[in-house]
Structures are given as structure tokens and as C-alpha cells.
Design a protein that fits this description.
614 residues, 4-stranded antiparallel sheet, 8-stranded mixed sheet, alpha+beta, single chain, 54% helix
């Protein structure tokens, strides 16, 4: 339902049920007008409004911000989307390098076959035609399987994705993506599949097995190094995000979410058409719910941490008896939250000095506030703020308010934002203290939420059966705020796993091919007295060299590109040593596992059999 926006505040408050909502301004630009031009034209009007309507103490705390609607919708998803696109491209390059290495190894194994065909009269074109058909069949089969796999993965990702990611619900595999995937697969398979036919078959290949040396061998080794380097890059990014997410999960929120239920009630405005009637209903609901079994505390507040709407004022609007108002533009915003006396007990927020609100404070002529530890340290550095008075611009008609206590800091603006200074105001049963927001009931219970919620709904229904109630656990709310970093970490971790698995397959393939190429050499060494441990060391030395080179290149690249993740990290630096050490050890262990299979096969070679090979 769309209602006309009343510009007169009195009419607007009446329409909105006694309180006003923040107003956002949207405008359609004329054709050819850019955002920069619109900002330049709006700047003089903003300055005039700033000088005319905003109090001098707050004047420089307001800023003009103009952005496109598209930017407003996608700003939070843009950087993660680019990072995930980079991860996809890295996996693609690993896969291309893997296919190239396997195709080159396959071509080297078929070098004698190509020489025999050429000796029997096959032309260069006939050889290329045969290899092209083989490469096309392999590439098309891989592309078809990949598209089916991608469709299933996309559906799974969309299903587990948190709400709020722009346009994710409309994501799908369209014709453009399918054509791109097929063409890329055909190009990769065809280019490296035709490599054996591009060289003139050597007559020496008719007499013995290919040695595996030369430019093609160095190219295969180089491709393995590239795969390991990109795997290291992906693993480093996934490791940083995983460690950051762990920090988010383990951080101290400043309050206890377990066992806490929040309830919001949409009161019918034709029956509760005044602020006092609405406040009286919540006070009666608070009393009724407190009588339920297993309830430890019940409170009413205009907002609940750690996210969502919250009231606020400016630091420059605060004054103490020793210090007047700070200069305009000093400090940041200060969160204001109106609560009833049991709020701190319901959320288990520690009171580090003084006391929390009491029932007697509701009827006292002296208004009181509770400050957060961060704000108390700024307003009263090195002093005990309890018993001192502050003044808040625009509140309590400029009266001086006594500080009753200091509460510990809590997360107010999400899980990853810094702690903000905060003032707790006592919600009284008078109209002048109404904050302009529908209150929220905070219920702390020792019983399970599924048990308590029906009882709470029954109590509210007994007060007014027409009032709908929305209830949820605070733990679920906190978990929802962590859903986005959890999803981003899972996605990048998945791509890192795919990249690592692909690189390991490539490493295994190259080491197995080299070990097979050196079968005669291994037989000669064993016939001359080399032990199986010597053969193991011979094979592993090449493997470790490739792994070390790829790991070193990947580590250097990771240290350079990890700065891109800085804005997505919490409590972890982009060059965190723990993450890089863990990723390096993981890469080494996985590489060793891939090396041991061909190395162990080389150890079991019988000298007599090896010397008879071709």
C-alpha cells in the first residue's frame, strides 16, 4: 500500500502512528546528466540547508552523499563478486594447465606411434586430423559434463546463500555462458591436443621410447609449477577468510545471545492511537511475561544489538560540566538506546561501574543514563563518571542528566564493525521519552525457545488477540549476520579445494609420467646397486623441486594479492603468518600424498624387467 508522504511533521506523525520514519530521496536524472554533475548542482542547496536549518553544534556532522541506485544495491556485493570471479579464473587456469600437461604427456607417449604412422605414409594433415578428432571428442565430453555439474552447483549455492545478495536469485546458466564454456574447452583441448602433430616425427623415435627431455618436458614441468602457484594463491585467500570467520564466531559481543528471545508486536493503530496507549500495552506485556515459568528477565527497548536500526546523536552534541560541547565535526555518532531497567540483566551486559537502572528511576525527577565504557572513557578520561552529569543536545529539554553507571561495550553495527560509543536512556511511562520506534520485547529464559515462544504468544494474545507477534531468538539473529561471511568463505574454500585437487592430479600425472619414462634408468641404477630408498629419493627430488618452485611463486603472489581481501577480513591481517604457514603445510602434505603413489610404483620396478623394456 502506497501512501502520500506528508511533508508537515504533525501530519506525518499522525499518518505513521505517532512517529516519523527516516526519509530517503530518490531522483531520476535528466538524459546525459552524470552523478558528478548532479552532486555539483546539489552542493549549493545542501550548504544553504546546512546553514539555515541545522544547529551550529551539529552542522558539520552532516554530509551530502549522492550515488546511483545500482551502486546502492550492489556496493556490498561488488568486492566479493570480483574476488570470487578471480577464484573462478584461477581454477580455470589450473584446469587449463592440467589439461595441457596431460595432453603433452599423452603426446610424448605417442611420439613413437606418430613416427610409425608417418613412416607408413601418413601425411602431416592426416595426423593432425586424427589428433583433432580425438581432442574434440575429449573436450566436448568434458564441457558437457562440466555444464551439468555447474548447473547442480549453482542450484546448491543459491539454495544455501543468505538473503540480501543482489540478483543472486536470478543467476542461471544461459546460452552465453554455455557457449563460452564449450569454446574454452575446445580451445584448450585442441591447442594442446594438436601439439604432437605440429612437430616433424623423428626417425629416432622408431628405435626407442621417447626420453621425455627437451622443450616439451620443460613445458610440462612449468605447467605443474603454474598449477601449484595458483593453488597456493587460492588456498591463501580461503585460509585468510576461514581464520577471519573463526574470529567473527569467537569474538565477544558484549552480551549473551543464548536463551534470549525478541518479540515485536504490530499494535493496531485505530486502537492504540497515542504513544501513551502503546507504552501502557508494552508495560502490561512485560509484567505478564515476567510471570511465566523459567523467565529470568524481561525488558523493553527500541532496538537490539548487534544489527538493525538504532537511535543516535552526535558526539559534538554531548557536554559535561567540566567540558562544553565539542567543536562541530568532532568524533563520530553516538548510539542512543532507550531501555527498561531489566535490559542489562536480560542480555547479561556487565555493569563495570556504578549500577544499572532501577524501577525507582522511572518515577524519579532526576533523569539518569548509563554510558558504555568507550563513551565514558572519552567524556571522562581518567575519572570515575558515576554521579557526574552530562547534557545531550535535543534531549530532555537541555537538562543535565546524571550518570548512573557504566556498561561494557557491545556490538551495535554488525559483527565486523568497531565498537561504538553508546548512551542508554531509561524508557519511562511518559510520552516525552518515546523514541519514535516500535519497541521490542527482550525475554531471557532458562527454558528452550520452542517451549517459551507459545507461552509468550498466549500472554500477548490475552492482552490483545488482534495484535500479531513476530518472535525469534537472538542467537538466530546473530547467526544471520554471520551468514554472508560464512557463505563467502565456503565459496572461496570450495574453489580452493577444486584448484588444489586439480593441481594434485597434474602433479601426480607428471611424476607418474617421468617415473615411467625413466623405467630403464631405474633398472640400470638398481642393477648397479641402488637401493629402493635411493629410487624413492630420486623420484621425490623432482617432485619436491616442482612443488617448492610453485609454492614459492604462489606465496609471493599471495602476499601481493591478499591486500584485496583486507576489507573482508576481521581480526586478521592480510599477511597473517598463521594462515600462510597452515596453507603451506597443507600444500606440502597434499603434494607428498600425490608423489608417494608414483614413487612407490618406481620402487617396485624389477631390474630385469626394466632392462627388457623396449
Amino acid at each position: 500500500m502506497y501512501l502520500p508522504l506528508a511533508l508537515n511533521r504533525a501530519v506525518q506523525n499522525k499518518v505513521n502512528g505517532g512517529y516519523g520514519e527516516p526519509t530517503r530521496t530518490f531522483a531520476r536524472l535528466k538524459p546525459g546528466v552524470s552523478i558528478a554533475q548532479a552532486r555539483a548542482e546539489m552542493e549549493p542547496l545542501f550548504r544553504h540547508t546546512q546553514q539555515t536549518f541545522i544547529p551550529p553544534a551539529l552542522r558539520y556532522d552532516f554530509h551530502l552523499s549522492i550515488r546511483s541506485l545500482r551502486e546502492r544495491e550492489t556496493q556490498g556485493a561488488r568486492l566479493p563478486a570480483w574476488i570470487l570471479l578471480g577464484a573462478v579464473l584461477a581454477v580455470m587456469l589450473i584446469a587449463c594447465a592440467n589439461v595441457a600437461g596431460l595432453m603433452l604427456a599423452r603426446g610424448a607417449m605417442r611420439e613413437r606411434e606418430m613416427a610409425v604412422r608417418a613412416a607408413l605414409g601418413a601425411s602431416r594433415g592426416r595426423l593432425m586430423q586424427q589428433l583433432l578428432m580425438e581432442a574434440l571428442l575429449i573436450s566436448l565430453a568434458g564441457a558437457a559434463g562440466g555444464l551439468v555439474f555447474a548447473e547442480g552447483l549453482l542450484r546448491a549455492f543459491v539454495a544455501i546463500a543468505p538473503s540480501g545478495i543482489p540478483f543472486l536469485g536470478r543467476a542461471g546458466l544461459d546460452l552465453r555462458i554455455a557457449i563460452f564454456a564449450v569454446l574454452l574447452s575446445l580451445a584448450c583441448g585442441t591447442i594442446f591436443g594438436l601439439a604432437p602433430a605440429l612437430e616433424q616425427p623423428r626417425s629416432s623415435a622408431l628405435a626407442a621410447r621417447a626420453s621425455g627431455r627437451g622443450r616439451r618436458a620443460y613445458l610440462r614441468r612449468g605447467l605443474v609449477v603454474v598449477q601449484i602457484a595458483f593453488s597456493m594463491l587460492l588456498l591463501s585467500g580461503a585460509g585468510l577468510l576461514a581464520l577471519s570467520f573463526q574470529k567473527i564466531e569467537e569474538q565477544n559481543l558484549g552480551f549473551r545471545a543464548k536463551g534470549v528471545i525478541t518479540a515485536q508486536i504490530a499494535l493496531p493503530q485505530f486502537r492504540y492511537n497515542t504513544v501513551q496507549k502503546q507504552m501502557d500495552f508494552y508495560l502490561r506485556a512485560e509484567t505478564a511475561i515476567r510471570r511465566l515459568p523459567g523467565i529470568r528477565a524481561v525488558a523493553v527497548t527500541d532496538s537490539v544489538p548487534p544489527g538493525g536500526w538504532q537511535g543516535g546523536t552526535h558526539y559534538s552534541g554531548l557536554a559535561t560540566e567540566e567540558r562544553p560541547h565539542a567543536p562541530p565535526g568532532t568524533g563520530e555518532s553516538v548510539v542512543t538506546r532507550q531501555v527498561t531497567p531489566d535490559y542489562f540483566q536480560a542480555l547479561d551486559i556487565p555493569i563495570v561501574r556504578g549500577r544499572r537502572f532501577s524501577e525507582e528511576d522511572r518515577t524519579s525527577s532526576q533523569p539518569r543514563v548509563v554510558l558504555s565504557r568507550l563513551l565514558a572513557a572519552r567524556l571522562f578520561p581518567g575519572e570515575d563518571p558515576v554521579g557526574k552529569r552530562i547534557q545531550i543536545a535535543g534531549m530532555y529539554n537541555g537538562a543535565w542528566i546524571m550518570v548512573a553507571g557504566v556498561a561494557d561495550n557491545v556490538k551495535n553495527s554488525g559483527l565486523t564493525e568497531q565498537d561504538e560509543p553508546e548512551i542508554y536512556l531509561l524508557r519511562r511511562s511518559v510520552v516525552s521519552d518515546w523514541s519514535g520506534r516500535a519497541p521490542t520485547l527482550v525475554i531471557d529464559s532458562v527454558l528452550l525457545a520452542d517451549t517459551v515462544m507459545p507461552w509468550v504468544r498466549t500472554q500477548i494474545s490475552s492482552l490483545d488477540p488482534t495484535a500479531p507477534v513476530e518472535m525469534k531468538t537472538l542467537k538466530r539473529t546473530v547467526s544471520g549476520l554471520a551468514a554472508r561471511p560464512r557463505f563467502e568463505t565456503a565459496l572461496l574454500g570450495f574453489f580452493a579445494f577444486i584448484g588444489l585437487a586439480t593441481a594434485v592430479i597434474g602433479l601426480y600425472g607428471v611424476i607418474a609420467f617421468l617415473a615411467r619414462q625413466r623405467t630403464q634408468e631405474i633398472g640400470v641404477r638398481m642393477a648397479l646397486g641402488a637401493t629402493r630408498f635411493d629410487i624413492l629419493r630420486l623420484v621425490l627430488r623432482e617432485s619436491f623441486r616442482l612443488t617448492a618452485m610453485g609454492g614459492a611463486v604462489g606465496l609471493a603472489a599471495s602476499l601481493s594479492f591478499s591486500r584485496v581481501l583486507k576489507s573482508l577480513l576481521y581480526g586478521v591481517g592480510p599477511h597473517d603468518p598463521v594462515s600462510f604457514v597452515a596453507v603451506t603445510l597443507l600444500l606440502i602434505l597434499v603434494a607428498i600424498a600425490a608423489m608417494l603413489v608414483p614413487a612407490r610404483a618406481a620402487m617396485t620396478v624389477e631390474p630385469v624387467v626394466a632392462l627388457r623394456v623396449e
